[in-house]
Known about the structure:
Layout (H helix, E strand, L loop, with lengths): L2 H34 L8 E6 L2 E2 L9 E5 L4 E5 L4 E9 L2 E9 L7 H16 L2 E5 L2 E5 L5 E7 L4
Antiparallel strand pairs: 1-2, 1-3, 1-9, 3-4, 4-5, 5-6, 7-8, 8-9
Amino acid sequence: MSSKYFLLCCAIAANLVLTIAAGCATRASREVAAASSVPLADTNWRLTQLGDEMIPAAAGEPVGMQLQSQNTRVVGFSGCNRMFGAYALDGQSLKFAQVGGTKMACADQGRMRLEQRYLEMFSSAAGWRISGQTLELLDAQGKPVATFVAAATG
Length: 154
């Protein structure tokens, strides 16, 4: 085998290895990017902070919401009751309307206060921002009024 032929084969093999490695790196980068952020709509969002107050995960159903893309409805659980309403999304602008809930009695007064504050928060929301797995609802000045984390489903 001539040295020119050997060098050509080595160059082709090296190029093939680099091409495959680049393809794997690109695919891995896309997978990491996809895993690091989630869509606003059709994601189950669990409340972690309301205003300045951290909301610890409690036993039972977590306080949270989902913006449904097919009908621009917001649904979820507000602490004691099922909640529902409408939303309008225009780029980074997000407004909620007619947010309410069922009227089940709630024995836990702390959960009842949290539910009232949570439902009131929707009237002050004017925008949104997602970073990784975290959603912030923002007021008109861009200050976070509520923070959520994408919740696992299933």
